From TrEMBL:
It comes from Paenibacillus artemisiicola. The keyword Transmembrane helix applies. InterPro entries: Spore_GerAB. It holds the Pfam family Spore_permease. The chain crosses the membrane at residues 5-26, 32-54, 75-98, 110-127, 134-154, 183-202, 214-233, 263-287, 308-328, 340-361. Keywords: Membrane, Transmembrane, Transmembrane helix. This is GerAB/ArcD/ProY family transporter. It comes from the Bacteria. The keyword Membrane applies.
Length: 385
């Protein structure tokens, strides 16, 4: 079961290449990006390890169930709605950005809104599936995409076109003071563990997460690759001219493998799948948190039939996403996304610390609930006997 945890970490860390994380890092390449990435690696690793330790105390429980142990409904609902908004925004931003990329590189004659509508319809169906099904979708998608993406990243690092002098020039600015914007952008690479605010429902009480030392190594390597490869291909100054810098970077790669001569087409198709999977997770997480705010919420990781509420809630998400793509242009989306990434960093740190504080100072109420559940289980067993 440990692999499902790492699937989410790998998914989010790889997806950052096609979002605005590289762009934000490049804007601060002379003004604190390197130390900001180092600080983000330390903070992200610490939060991930702290979070995994805390969630081990709540096997089989998602965030709504954990909050119900310690907080009244009127306190837990605003926190759940805030988390739902953050995951909904992450999914919608990634879908909008990728609809623009598909429109620009594959079919410029088609409106990006049409592409966004089709992507929203796909995610509308997939996000309404059960939590267990969504996790299986993540597994299958990564088994297909991740090996090819990692191979392409390896080829990019080993390319003869990579200018290491440009990379060394930027590396000389390693001692500049860290800034909050590149720190927040780099921290996003380490944030895949946050998906287990809901997917923790799938894990049994005897679950043990092994090989946690992989987290800083893998995410750190992806973060370094995200930063240095575009600089090596486009130079210290030219790298700041591109919004979707990794799309242009992949277009500079040429493979002598027949139909994979231009890497950008394979690269975008792979990231289209990852973007849809990421949006599916985001909408599904937001849906489950909204459902937990309703009266008499039901927790079922694999229901026999899809509840009608799933279609209604995710349908609203799809409509909001299409409306966002219609009323906002790329510049407005970039400005909003940059602000959202900073807000998400604050929200991530405070959320993990908040759950950690609840686990420390709310042990009495938890023991009372566990005792009540044990009594109920024993009573049910006696009735069955």
């Amino acid at each position: 079961m440990s692999r499902y945890f790492y699937y989410n970490v790998v998914l989010v860390s790889l997806l950052n290449l096609m979002l605005f994380v590289p762009y934000m890092l490049m804007q601060y390449r002379y003004n604190g990006a390197i130390l900001s990435m180092l600080c983000a690696a330390v903070v992200g690793t610490t939060l991930a390890l702290l979070y995994t330790r805390v969630m081990r105390k709540f096997p089989g429980r998602g965030l709504p169930e954990i909050l119900s142990l310690y907080l009244p409904k009127w306190l837990s609902v605003p926190f759940l709605l805030f988390c739902a908004f953050m995951w909904l925004t992450a999914a919608s931003i990634s879908m909008y950005a990728f609809s623009v990329l598909i429109n620009r590189f594959f079919n410029p004659d088609t409106s990006s809104i049409i592409v966004l509508v089709f992507m929203a319809l796909v995610c509308l169906y997939s996000a309404t599936r059960s939590t267990l099904t969504v996790m299986f979708v993540v597994e299958v998608g990564l088994m297909v995409c991740a090996p090819v993406i990692l191979f392409l990243l390896f080829k990019a690092v080993r390319s003869q076109m990579l200018d290491w002098d440009a990379i060394r020039t930027v590396a000389h600015y390693w001692n500049r003071t860290p800034r909050i914007e590149p720190f927040a952008a780099a921290l996003f690479v380490f944030t895949g563990y946050m998906n287990f605010f809901m997917f923790n429902r799938l894990f049994s009480p005897n679950f043990r997460l092994r090989y946690r030392w992989i987290l800083p190594i893998f995410c750190g390597l992806i973060l370094i690759t995200t930063f240095i490869v575009p600089i090596g291909f486009h130079g210290t100054e030219g790298v700041a001219d591109y919004l979707y810098v990794w799309s242009v970077t992949s277009d500079t790669l040429i493979m002598s493998y027949g139909f994979i001569e231009r890497v950008i087409f394979v690269f975008l198709l792979l990231y289209l799948m990852l973007s849809l999977i990421f949006a599916t997770i985001g909408w599904h997480m937001a849906m489950e948190m909204v459902k937990a705010c309703l009266p008499k919420p039901k927790t079922d990781i694999d229901p026999a039939r899809t509840p009608r509420s799933n279609w209604v809630i995710v349908g609203v998400f799809a409509a909001l996403t299409v409306a966002y793509g219609y009323f906002f242009d790329e510049k407005q989306n970039l400005r909003f996304t940059s602000q959202w990434i900073v807000a998400r960093a604050y929200g991530e740190i405070l959320s993990v610390l908040f759950i950690f504080a609840l686990s420390l100072f709310g042990s009495g109420k938890k023991k009372k609930l566990v005792s009540h559940e044990t009594t109920s289980t024993n009573a049910a067993g006696a009735d069955g006997a």
